[in-house]
TrEMBL record:
<feature type="domain" description="DNA2/NAM7 helicase-like C-terminal">
    <location>
        <begin position="666"/>
        <end position="873"/>
    </location>
</feature>
<feature type="domain" description="DNA2/NAM7 helicase helicase">
    <location>
        <begin position="471"/>
        <end position="563"/>
    </location>
</feature>
<dbReference type="Pfam" id="PF13086">
    <property type="entry name" value="AAA_11"/>
</dbReference>
<dbReference type="GO" id="GO:0016787">
    <property type="term" value="F:hydrolase activity"/>
</dbReference>
<keyword id="KW-0347">Helicase</keyword>
<dbReference type="GO" id="GO:0032574">
    <property type="term" value="F:5'-3' RNA helicase activity"/>
</dbReference>
<protein>
    <recommendedName>
        <fullName>RNA helicase</fullName>
        <ecNumber>3.6.4.13</ecNumber>
    </recommendedName>
</protein>
<feature type="domain" description="DNA2/NAM7 helicase helicase">
    <location>
        <begin position="589"/>
        <end position="657"/>
    </location>
</feature>
<keyword id="KW-0378">Hydrolase</keyword>
<dbReference type="GO" id="GO:0003723">
    <property type="term" value="F:RNA binding"/>
</dbReference>
<dbReference type="GO" id="GO:0031047">
    <property type="term" value="P:regulatory ncRNA-mediated gene silencing"/>
</dbReference>
<dbReference type="InterPro" id="IPR027417">
    <property type="entry name" value="P-loop_NTPase"/>
</dbReference>
<dbReference type="InterPro" id="IPR047187">
    <property type="entry name" value="SF1_C_Upf1"/>
</dbReference>
<dbReference type="InterPro" id="IPR026122">
    <property type="entry name" value="MOV-10/SDE3_DEXXQ/H-box"/>
</dbReference>
<dbReference type="Pfam" id="PF21634">
    <property type="entry name" value="MOV-10_beta-barrel"/>
</dbReference>
<feature type="domain" description="Helicase MOV-10-like beta-barrel">
    <location>
        <begin position="340"/>
        <end position="419"/>
    </location>
</feature>
<dbReference type="Pfam" id="PF13087">
    <property type="entry name" value="AAA_12"/>
</dbReference>
Length: 959
């Protein structure tokens, strides 16, 4: 079935990037876009009008694309070409590649056919082989028979050819001809045996070529067969295999909601005593039309940049620039939510709530909070009529809704469900952008905003609370500079690479400001609740009381989502919802900690601008600029000092819209500042920025590559030796003093049902094998909490969790984003992608988000003592960054696979400009040409050389 699929038209069209073209016999035109394009065409007014004018039914079946007036149809490229451009088309790279591939497929089809009376019997698919069996070796028999009574054919040789010419590569298959018989004659058989032997998990392929000669005609010919095997546990493969074939989910046109009956909103929405209303901030109609149109993203970007975006970003255009980016992002968020619509659901009633099961809720896919709205429509109701349910309860897999009294329900009724975006966070950011705070020293600081005097000497005038900072000069300098800043200074940046203690530095700076300035008031923000909780917990540990420190939580959160130790630093209303205390007490707090967007609560309740002398934003690189500026634009005045901490080399904010990303929303405020001259880490040292350089997390060999690649080699390994050397000498390490392992696995990209997320069963099994060995080791003790597993695709995380259920349930498995700011003794990375298409290697799609340098940096810097990467080296090496890293591991003997599993020379300098995907394509073309050439030579052997005019005849015959 697999080989049949590879030869099918559908597969060939996909791998050659072709678009299915149908022909409409009524309109005499070719239609692109597959079934969706055809459906749009036959429903169009033009089609119906043409059918009516011809007096025929508009209902017509599509036929294969063909020539039309003034245009020719190219069967190979699946496209129509104007007659005038036909000459250029057949010389184009696209067409010549299509010709080459068609020729290769023809040769391959011909080679796999039984011919000249020779018949090959036996299956050469070893299927799934247990690792213990594969290590010893398993065999498949093959029989050569003759179907012609007077045939005179001799078997000349049997070769394995798929890996010919590959560097240091030896096939895991071997072929043996049993006995001395080589004559293929009627009534006798030739026995062959194929041995597969391999101890490592993964998928393996080769090609067997049997060369024969018809001695009567003195002609040679080849019969070829593919070989394939999978090493792994069969039960695991069956359990993890796709539950349903992957069928891309087609976006259907939503009918607009014309009538929405509002439901009962939860009390939490009124928990905060806001003094003003939020702006509606509705997306402009013209912008919405462009975003929802059918044009390509590049065209939309160009149009939006030309019509809506200011030509230059400055203080006057700042709000307009970011408001449009917010609208673009919001539009994409709304669209993305449509994926989670449920078209056939039921509700259960437990008064006063109606409960709805939400698949993926525990994974925040979709994310639903108390206060959100979910639309519900009874089957058979008017398409535009919906009931809005206010979300009052959020549990692991269900939400509790309340509707208006007119909502009718029965246990058997089926409902359509729509998830609606909660616009309040976006409205808060629009509200901030609308303020008149446009100070140049904050938005666009230059050298004229920086004092000309020298920066204060590290430790001058302060006595540190945390003794460790006293011995760390960069941390001490950062604290000293922040404490000694004059009011109204330019923003100060604490540039904190992985494991360098930037949060500790910020905490010390806050405590020093409070100690040296009794009038100081501090607002401390972070992009996430977990990061804000860390700030509050560290300040609590510094003996701050609940009269000095306030941790604000949104009313939508529940008590069980908050660390018990911080509950005393919150304010909870009698009805159980988080809120804010009376204004007098709010003003008395010396430090308020909140998330970036929730910082809007302060201006919202009427807190005066300038009340806070300092605004700190930790992990500032992870927030968008509008998020970071919610606190700054609503609360800062001419004297407010702003301190940012983070690392622009690690993950930036998550942006859903590719258009917003292209227009700059992915660039954080921290990154934008760091690109300005005054934030050069050397020229601005001590005045505007301090780079922390002492890494307290990782073993030096884990740190070395990202240090040299991203941080100019400035980082100094200073971690506790007992922790970072925990696995030195262990059996997991190919080199006993180098705790970085790359384990090559050739797997297969899989998807299932309507999910576009990829998973790779072979890598799942290899990761599981490592976890089991780590947990079973009695010498190198490893607990579940010591292990973190990072995968770039959600589906892979789900499969890994499923495979570890009952084995190591406490191991955290998550995306790179979920691990930023965290560390584990052991980190295992599954890179997932293992594309094996023979011709088309598209780097952007092959590597997906593994190719993002920031994700790479975060992923490989989470490990303290042992870093294990599981992946397909031939796919990863298409990216220059990954190729450099793989070379680093290989040359330090951290490669866990055989030498042949690295198919390039790791001593050759890496081309940073890339182009390796192009080189692979060219190599594949050479391989195809070589195969086709050998087929020709075998077929034409013994033919008079003057008959060269027929050299291509066998291929044309098959075509």
């Amino acid at each position: 079935m697999y080989q049949a699929h590879l030869k099918g038209k559908k597969h060939l069209r996909v791998i050659n990037g072709r678009t299915v073209v149908s022909h409409c016999t009524i309109c005499n035109m070719n239609i692109t876009g597959g079934q969706e394009g055809w459906t749009i065409h036959v429903r169009s007014k033009r089609h119906r009008t043409t059918a009516a004018s011809k007096g025929v039914s508009a209902v017509v079946d599509p036929v294969e694309g063909g020539d039309i007036a003034g245009q020719r149809f190219c069967d190979l490229c699946r496209t129509t070409v104007p007659d005038a451009a036909w000459g250029r088309h057949i010389l184009s790279l696209r067409h010549t590649r299509a010709e080459l591939y068609a020729k290769y497929r023809t040769a391959l089809d011909e080679a796999e056919k039984d011919k000249n009376g020779v018949v090959i019997e036996g299956t050469l698919d070893f299927s799934v082989v247990e690792p213990t069996v594969a290590a010893v070796g398993t065999r498949c028999p093959l029989v050569v028979k003759c179907s012609l009574p007077f045939s005179k054919v001799v078997l000349l040789e049997a070769n394995l050819t798929a890996l010919q010419g590959k560097r240091n590569t030896k096939s895991v298959f071997s072929v043996t001809i049993i006995g001395d018989n080589r004559q293929v004659v009627s009534g006798r058989t030739i026995q062959l045996e194929i041995l597969f032997q391999q101890s490592q998990i993964g998928r393996y392929q080769d090609r067997l070529e049997l060369a024969f000669e018809d001695t009567q005609l003195t002609k040679r010919f080849i019969i070829s067969r593919p070989l394939q095997a999978i090493v792994g546990n069969k039960a695991d493969h069956e359990a993890l295999s796709p539950k349903a074939p992957y069928i891309p989910r087609k976006r259907t046109q939503r009918h607009p909601e014309t009538t929405v009956v509002e439901g009962v909103t939860p009390p939490s929405l009124n928990a905060i005593p806001y003094v003003g209303k939020l702006p509606r901030a509705v997306i402009p109609f013209q912008l919405a039309s462009i975003l929802s149109g059918n044009g390509a993203s590049a065209q939309k970007v160009s149009h939006i940049r030309r019509v809506f975006m200011p030509a230059t970003l400055d203080s006057d255009s700042y709000a307009r620039h970011f408001k449009h980016l917010l609208w673009i992002e919001e539009s994409k968020m709304e669209t993305d939510l449509e994926r989670y619509d449920i078209h056939d659901s039921t509700l259960t009633k437990h008064a006063p709530y109606y409960y709805l099961d939400v698949p993926g809720l525990a994974e925040k896919r979709p994310s639903v909070l108390v206060g959100d709205k979910i639309l519900v429509q009874r089957h058979g109701a008017d398409t535009g009529h919906w009931f809005s349910g206010g979300v009052h309860v959020v549990r692991q897999v269900e939400v509790g809704l309340r509707f208006a009294g007119s909502f009718q329900w029965t246990t058997a009724e089926r409902y359509h469900i729509r998830f609606k975006l909660n616009r309040i966070p976006m409205q808060r950011q629009h509200q901030a952008m609308d303020t008149v705070f446009t100070q140049e020293r904050v938005l666009f600081p230059t050298q004229q905003h920086v004092p000309s005097d020298s920066y204060p000497k590290a430790g001058a005038g302060i006595r540190v609370f945390n003794g460790l900072i006293a011995t760390n000069r960069p941390q001490l300098q950062a604290v000293t500079s922040i404490v000694n800043q004059a009011a109204g200074a330019v923003p100060f940046v604490v540039f904190g690479p992985p494991g360098t203690g930037k949060t500790i530095t910020i905490i010390e700076a806050i405590r020093q400001i409070l100690h040296t300035n009794p009038r100081a008031r501090i607002l401390a923000c972070a992009p996430s609740n977990s990061a804000a909780d860390l700030i509050a917990s560290r300040l609590q540990d510094g003996n701050m009381t609940n009269d000095q420190l306030f941790r604000f939580y949104a009313p939508s959160r529940f008590k069980n989502q908050v660390p018990d130790s911080l509950l005393a630093f919150t304010y909870i209303r009698p009805d159980g919802h988080f809120s804010v205390p009376p204004m007098a007490r709010m003003k008395a707090f010396r430090v308020v900690v909140t998330t970036c967007v929730s910082a809007s609560v302060l201006s919202g309740i009427g807190m005066a601008r300038g009340h806070y002398s300092h605004i700190f934003i930790d992990e500032a690189g992870q927030s968008t600029e509008p998020e970071a500026f919610v606190s700054i634009k609503t609360m800062a005045d001419n004297s407010t000092n702003i301190i940012l901490s983070g690392d622009p080399k690690q993950l930036g904010p998550i942006i859903r819209s590719g258009i917003a990303q292209e227009l700059g929303l992915e660039v954080s405020y921290l990154e934008r500042l760091m690109a300005r001259n005054i934030y050069d880490v050397q020229a601005g040292y001590g005045k505007t920025v301090v780079k922390l350089v002492k890494n307290f997390r990782s073993h030096s060999t884990i740190l070395q590559f990202p240090n040299e690649r991203f941080y100019n080699g400035d980082l100094e390994p200073c971690a506790e030796r007992a922790v970072i050397n925990a696995y030195i000498g262990s059996s997991y390490l190919p080199s006993k003093k180098f705790p970085v392992v790359f384990h090559p696995v050739t797997g297969k990209d899989l998807r299932e049902a309507s999910s576009p997320s990829f998973f790779n069963i072979d890598e799942v099994l290899q990761v599981k094998d490592y976890v089991q060995k780590l947990r079973a080791d009695r010498r190198f003790i490893t607990t579940d909490n010591d292990i973190g597993i990072i995968a770039p695709y959600h589906a892979q995380c789900l499969k890994i969790r499923a495979s570890l259920r009952g084995v190591a349930d406490g191991v955290k498995v998550g995306s790179v984003e979920e691990f930023q700011g965290q560390e584990r003794k052991v980190i295992i990375i599954s890179t997932v992608r293992s594309s094996k298409e023979f011709v088309e290697y598209d780097l952007r799609h092959t590597l997906g988000f593994v190719a993002n340098p920031r994700r790479f940096n975060v992923a490989v810097t989470r490990a303290q003592a042992l870093l294990i990467i599981v992946g397909d080296p031939n796919v990863l090496a298409l990216d220059p960054l990954w190729r450099s890293f793989l070379n680093y591991v290989y040359l330090n003997n951290g490669w866990a696979g055989p030498p042949g599993s690295i198919t390039w020379d790791p001593n050759v300098p890496v081309e940073e400009a890339g182009g390796y995907d192009r080189a692979v394509r060219e190599a594949a073309q050479i391989d195809m040409n070589d195969f086709a050439r050998r087929m020709e030579e075998m077929t034409l052997s013994g033919v008079d050389e003057e008959m060269d005019a027929g050299v291509d005849k066998p291929w044309r015959e098959t075509e």
